[in-house]
C-alpha cells in the first residue's frame, strides 16, 4: 500500500475516480489494545466484521490470540494470520462438512450450538476422528432480548429452558459445556448485556452441570457521526461498558468462569475510511461513486450516520459567492442504477460542495469491505495506508459532522 499522512493528501495526489480506502494501522492497533486491556477474559475477534488479511495480520501483531470464525474461508483467513491462535467456531447452524473440516483440519475445539441436531453434528466428527470429547467445549447460544442496530437473537439462540436441556446433554456426552450470547451489533440498550448475563446465571443454576467458559459475544458500540442539529450524544464508553458487564457477571455469581468476548465493530470501525468522488451534484443530492452495494451497506441497514468531510478539488474554479459556506444536509445517491441505492442518512457538508470534489467517509472499517458486491460492475478495491486518524485530519475547507458546531461558528 502507498503511504500518506492523511487521506486528503492521498486524494490530492492520486485524484481517484474510484473509491479509495484509507487504512490506518496505528488506529487499529490502538483500538485492539483498548479492548485487550479493558476486558478481563479472552478477546476473540469476530472475523466476519472485516476479514482482510492486512487487518487480521495487524490484529495478530497487536496481541489478538483468538478469532471467532464462521466458515471455511474464515478458518483459513484466521490461520493465515496466526498459526497458533485459538479459533472459536461460534456459528450456531453449520454444515456437517464444515464441522468436520474445522475439527480435523483446523484443530477447532470450541463450537457453538443452539439445537440438539447441532450437537449431533459435532458428536459424529468426534466419534469418527476419535477425538476425546473432553477436549471440546460446546457453547450453548442463548436467545436474548434488547435494542441494537441489528437484532441477532431473532434468528439464533435457545430459550433458557431449552438451553438447560442442551447443557445437560453436552455434559452427559463428556464435552466441556459453555454458555454464550450475542446481543446484537452496535448495541444501544446496554441493559441487554445485563439481561443476558442474568439469563446465563439462571440457566447455569438450573442445569447444575460444570461450566468451562462464558462467552459474552460482541455488539460493543463504535463511535459514528450524528445529526448536527441535535446535541452531540456522548461517545460510546467501552471501558465503562466492559466494567458494567463484569460487575453483572460478578453480581450473578459467574465471576469464577473464564470469560471470552467476540468484539468486531468496536475494534475495526475507526481503522478505515473511504475517499469517494462526487460524480454529480444535483440540488441537494450528491451522486457518489460508492453506495449500499459497495462500502456503505452497513450504514444503510443499520441506519448509521457516518462522519464525512469534504475534500474540495483545488483544480476546479469556483463561482464567487458573497456568503460564507454553510453546513447543509445532502442526500447521498450511490453508484449503481438501483433505485434503493440511496443512503438513509444525509451527509452534512459545506454547501460549496460540487461535482468533482471528494468526500472522506470515516469509520467504515466494520461490515464494509466484507459486504462489497460486484453489482453493476462496480467493485472498489484500491487501498492506501494513512498515518493520521480520521478525526484529527487538518486543513480541510469542509467539516466533519463529528465537529459540526465549531465549523458553523
Ligand atoms: C457478528 C458477530 C459478532 C461481532 O459483532 P460486533 O457487533 O461487530 O461486535 C460477535 N459474535 C457473533 C456470534 C456474531 O455473529
Automatic annotation (TrEMBL):
One of its GO terms (molecular function) is ornithine decarboxylase activity. Belongs to the Orn/Lys/Arg decarboxylase class-II family. It holds the Pfam family Orn_Arg_deC_N. The lineage of its organism: Bacteria, Pseudomonadati, Pseudomonadota, Alphaproteobacteria, Hyphomicrobiales. This is Ornithine decarboxylase. It comes from the Bacteria. The modification N6-(pyridoxal phosphate)lysine is found at residue 48. Its EC number is 4.1.1.17. Keywords: Lyase, Pyridoxal phosphate. GO terms for biological process: putrescine biosynthetic process from arginine, via ornithine. It is an enzyme of class 4 (lyase). Residues 270-363 form the Orn/DAP/Arg decarboxylase 2 C-terminal domain. It comes from Hansschlegelia beijingensis.
Amino acid at each position: 500500500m502507498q503511504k500518506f499522512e492523511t487521506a486528503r493528501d492521498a486524494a490530492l495526489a492520486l485524484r481517484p475516480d474510484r473509491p479509495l480506502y484509507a487504512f490506518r494501522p496505528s488506529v487499529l492497533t490502538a483500538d485492539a489494545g483498548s479492548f485487550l486491556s479493558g476486558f478481563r477474559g479472552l478477546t476473540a475477534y469476530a472475523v466476519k466484521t472485516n476479514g482482510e488479511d492486512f487487518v487480521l495480520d495487524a490484529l495478530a501483531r497487536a496481541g489478538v490470540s483468538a478469532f471467532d470464525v464462521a466458515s471455511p474461508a474464515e478458518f483459513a483467513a484466521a490461520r493465515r494470520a496466526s498459526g497458533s491462535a485459538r479459533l472459536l467456531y461460534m456459528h450456531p447452524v453449520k454444515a456437517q462438512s464444515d464441522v468436520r473440516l474445522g475439527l480435523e483440519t483446523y484443530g477447532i475445539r470450541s463450537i457453538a450450538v443452539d439445537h440438539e441436531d447441532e450437537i449431533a453434528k459435532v458428536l459424529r466428527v468426534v466419534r469418527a476422528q476419535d477425538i476425546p470429547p473432553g477436549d471440546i467445549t460446546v457453547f450453548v447460544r442463548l436467545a436474548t432480548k434488547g435494542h441494537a442496530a441489528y437484532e441477532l437473537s431473532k434468528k439464533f439462540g435457545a430459550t433458557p429452558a431449552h438451553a438447560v436441556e442442551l447443557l445437560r446433554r453436552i455434559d452427559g456426552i463428556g464435552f466441556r459445556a459453555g454458555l454464550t450470547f450475542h446481543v446484537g451489533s452496535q448495541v444501544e440498550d446496554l441493559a441487554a448485556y445485563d439481561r443476558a448475563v442474568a439469563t446465563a446465571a439462571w440457566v447455569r443454576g438450573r442445569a447444575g452441570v460444570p461450566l468451562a467458559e462464558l462467552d459474552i459475544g460482541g455488539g460493543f458500540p463504535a463511535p459514528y457521526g450524528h445529526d448536527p442539529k441535535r446535541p452531540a450524544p456522548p461517545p460510546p464508553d467501552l471501558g465503562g461498558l466492559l466494567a458494567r458487564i463484569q460487575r453483572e457477571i460478578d453480581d450473578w455469581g459467574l465471576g469464577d468462569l473464564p470469560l471470552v468476548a467476540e468484539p468486531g465493530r468496536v475494534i475495526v470501525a475507526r481503522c478505515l475510511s473511504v475517499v469517494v468522488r462526487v460524480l454529480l451534484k444535483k440540488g441537494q443530492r450528491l451522486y457518489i461513486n460508492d453506495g449500499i452495494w459497495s462500502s456503505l451497506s452497513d450504514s444503510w441497514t443499520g441506519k448509521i450516520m457516518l462522519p464525512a468531510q469534504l475534500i474540495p478539488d483545488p483544480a476546479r474554479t469556483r463561482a464567487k459567492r458573497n456568503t460564507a459556506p454553510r453546513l447543509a444536509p445532502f442526500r447521498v445517491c450511490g453508484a449503481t442504477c438501483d433505485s434503493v441505492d440511496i443512503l438513509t442518512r444525509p451527509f452534512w457538508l459545506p454547501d460549496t460542495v460540487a461535482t468533482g470534489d471528494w468526500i472522506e467517509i470515516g469509520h467504515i472499517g466494520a461490515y464494509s469491505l466484507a459486504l462489497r458486491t460486484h453489482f453493476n460492475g462496480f467493485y472498489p478495491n484500491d487501498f492506501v495506508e494513512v498515518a493520521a486518524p480520521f478525526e484529527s485530519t487538518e486543513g480541510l475547507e469542509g467539516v466533519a459532522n463529528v465537529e459540526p458546531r465549531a465549523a458553523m461558528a
